[in-house]
Structure formats: structure tokens, C-alpha cells
Amino acid sequence: MPKGKGRKSKKSSGQAGNSGADDLFRTALTNNRAPSVIDDMSDTESVMTSYSEHLSEDCELKDVQSELNSIEVIESKLAEAVDGLTEKSSKYRMGCINKIRQYFLATWLTNFLDRFQETLIDGLEKCLKKGGAPEQALAAETLAVVTLQLSCGDIGEDLYHRLNPILIKLIKDQTTNTQVRTKCCLALGVLAFVVEEDVDSLNDCMTLFQSVFSGSLLKGDKSVPVLKPLVGDLHVAALSSWGLLLTVCPWSRVEVTADAVLAKLPQLLSSNEVNVRIQAGVVLALFYEIIRNEENDQILTRHINTRQLVTEIRGLATDGSKHRSKKDRRYQRAIFRDVLLTLEHHDTFESTVKFGSEVLELSSWTLKVQYDVFKSILKTGLSFHLGENRLLRDIFSLGPVRGVCGMETGQRKRAHFERHLMNEANFKVQSQARNKCRDKRVANYD
What is the rounded average pLDDT of the residues 13-30? Predict the structure, then answer.
């Protein structure tokens, strides 16, 4: 067979089905470039276009299906999880509780609660009463999350009076697992904050929390108690919940509380646990803010030596002790600089939190304390709840629900998915192009 004819047939077969392939081939030869590279670049464009078209249609279909079916699927799975709270296996019950918690962190489920709230609360109540320590801790944490959606219904004080005795019993019992007591402190604090309006009942809860964090006060010989990390977490939870309830107490109750507690709070600044020190500083700043708003500074002068307290807080705001970790020192200094400004210059706390397309402005220590507690409970679900939870939006004056948080999340996921598929397509075509250009010669040593 003639050489020219063989090359021609090979070229024509390689370029078959491509419009204008001969011109591209000649151009490539003229520019001393391999025709395979040109072909693969056009293949890349066609593959990318094809992926983009199919992806756009596929994502739109998935978005529609998700809107129509996701709530039904979630409610079906949640119903199974709620029914699973009565199973005998502790491990299975814990799996069900965790699934319930995860769904309530990321989904607005008030319609589901209208039908299943009694069954759900019954299940959590039994887990708190009869479960082991890990199960009790998870049930208390889930109760706190669920409360933020239950409160939007009409269950009100019935829920509080039903679960309040169980939580109080677990918190008071010093033989109870420390982590269980920690979760119960947060759950009771949120439950009382959201649904309880009786001042005496709030005061009982605050007295209970005070009895817990008083373990961080100086001993009789003025020595600092050495706390284990888990005990420190318990005291922080109790102090946080105590501060949360202080933000909704009437002024008459604040005066009584100041007379009983205010003089003791500076002792917590000497704790060996950094989070106890920080929370104590935040609560002190909250007290100063509330009292000054009522223009009643004589309460402060009666119970606290402000000059001495400012000196101590300035030391914490500039603490450079090497025996503490760099992260702890940085966080402590940042908080106590704000506390110092409040005590010395009467400045209010100011911070902003971005979520979705909105911005939450924390313009007081009251909002700071409330935000910190909700953050410790909702964790990764905080942004969603700030956008969709009417209770939180009312507390932080964010206005009515805009209903765009979920849409923006879907758009971000879709864009990420599109980039992922596009990168896969590019990688595949580029790999094919490189393989065609590689030499496949065998070394010859003759």
C-alpha cells in the first residue's frame, strides 16, 4: 500500500465526524502543533458544554423534587425515630435521639410537632428518667434544641412544669454524671427563659444554678479551688444559664440578686479554668450594664470595689502567662478588653454576626449573653435558626422571617456541585489529551 494513501486514510478516520477537521489539521501542521491537541481542546469545550446543559436541567429537577419531597421524607424518618425512643436497646434509642436532634438543628418542624409533640416529649422524659449517662446527656441536649421550636406552639408552662422537676433532680444530685448535669443546666436555663413567666420560679432556677457555680468561689482559707475540666464546664453552663435568666428578671428581682451574689462574683476571676473566668467577666459586665441602665450606681459601690476590680480585669486583659495556652490567652484578652471598657468608660458591648445575607447586631451584654447560650445549644444550626426561627428573630429584633435562607443554601450547594462536575470533566479530557501526546518509544541502547 502506498505510504501517502495509508497516512491519508489514518488522518481521515481520526477526524471523522468533525466539521472543519481538515482545516484544523492543516492549521496545526502549519503551526507545528500536534493535531491531537487541537482535537482534544474542541472535545473539552464540547464536553464542558454538554455537562453544563445536563447539569443545569438535573439540578433544577432535583431542587423541585427536594422542595416537594424533603419535608415528607424528613417527617417520615422523624416519626420512626420518635417511635424508636421506646425500644429496649439503649444504643438504638441514642441513635434515634441523635437523629431527632440533627433534624431539629437543620429543619423547621413546627407542623411535625403539632402531631407528635406529646409522643416526642414522652420519649425524652423516659430517656432522662431511666437512661444511662450518655443517653441522659443526649436527651437533655435534644430537649434544649426542641424547646426552641416547641415554644412557638401553645404548650407553654405545661412543658416546663412537666420536665422541670426531672432536670432539677439531675442537677442537684452530685452523684450524677458531670456531663449530664452540664447538659441539664443548659436545658433548664433555656426552658425557663423561653416558657416560664413566674418570677418566683425563675428565682428558684437561678438559686439552683448559683449553688452549682459557687463551687468555683474561694474556699474558707481564701485559696482557689482546683477544678477538673468537666467540672469547669459544669460551672460555666450553670453561670451561663444564670446570666440568661438574669436578662429577663424584673428590676426588683435584680436588686435582690445583686445583694446576694454581686459581691462574690469577682472571686470567680481567680479560677484555674479559663472559661469560668471569661463567663464571670461577662456576667459582671452584664450586672454593670443593667444597674447603670436603671441609674442606680449605689448598688455597685455598696457591693464592689470598682477600682480594685478594674485593676484585676486589666491584668486579665493583658495576661501573658506562659503556663496558659496561646489560644486561651488570646480569647481571654479579647473578652476582658470589652469588659474593661464597660467598667471604666461605660461603653456598651458591640459586635456583629453575619448569617446568610443578614447581619445580627449585638449591641449590649444582654444580647451577648443570650446569643452565647443559643450558640452553645444550636452550634452548627445557629445560622439556620437565626434565619428561620421566629422566636430567635423576635429575641434579636431581626424582623419577620424572610424565607430566603434555605434558597441561598440551595444555590450555594448547586454552584459547588456544578464546579465539582466541571472539574471532573476537565480533568478527564486533559488526561486524555496528555496520554495522546506522550511518547511511547522504547529505549534502544544499541
Answer: 42
What does the pLDDT look like over 350-359, one tens digit per residue?
Answer: 999 999 889 9
Euclidean distance between CA atoms 206 and 244, whole angstroms: 9
The C-alpha cell 434579636 sits at: 396
Please name every residue paired with 360 in a beta bridge, in sequence order, or none if there are none: 353
223 backbone dihedrals φ, ψ, rounded to 5°: -85, 155
What's the DSSP call for residue 248?
Answer: T
* CA atoms of 382 and 374, how far apart (whole Å): 7
Residue with cell 475540666: 229
Burial of 307 (0-12, 13-18, 19+ CB in 10 A): exposed
Residue-by-residue DSSP string for 65-103: HHHHHHHHHHHHHHHHHHHGGG-S-HHHHHHHHHHHHHH
Lowest mean pLDDT among 54-63, 171-180, 285-294, 305-314: 54-63
pTM for the whole structure: 0.75
Q: DSSP assignment of 112-172, as one string?
A: HHHHHHHHHHHHHHHHHHHS-HHHHHHHHHHHHHHHHHHTTTT-HHHHHHHHHHHHHHHHH
Chain-centroid distance of CA 175 in Å reads 30
State how far Cα 365 lies from the chain centre.
20
The span from the CA of 354 to the CA of 336, in Å, is 23
Contact criterion met (CB below 8 Å) for 249 and 199: yes
**pLDDT single digits (tens) 34-83:** 333 334 434 444 434 443 444 444 444 344 334 434 778 888 889 999 99
Contact of 149 with 107, CB cutoff 8 Å: no
Give the per-residue pLDDT at 172: 96
Sequence-separated (6 or more) residues with CB below 8 Å from residue 362: 349, 350, 351, 352, 353, 368, 371
Over residues 181-197, the pLDDT tens digits come to 999 999 999 999 998 88
Q: How far is CA 182 from CA 96, 185, 211, 232, 241, in A?
A: 21, 5, 13, 10, 10
Q: Which tops the pLDDT comparison, 432 or 10?
A: 432
Separation in Å, CA 371 to CA 145, 163, 309, 332: 14, 24, 26, 18
Hey, what amino acid is at 218?
Answer: L
Cβ pair 141, 183 in contact under 8 A: yes
CA nearest 308: which of 332, 333, 275, 343?
343
pLDDT score, position 89: 92
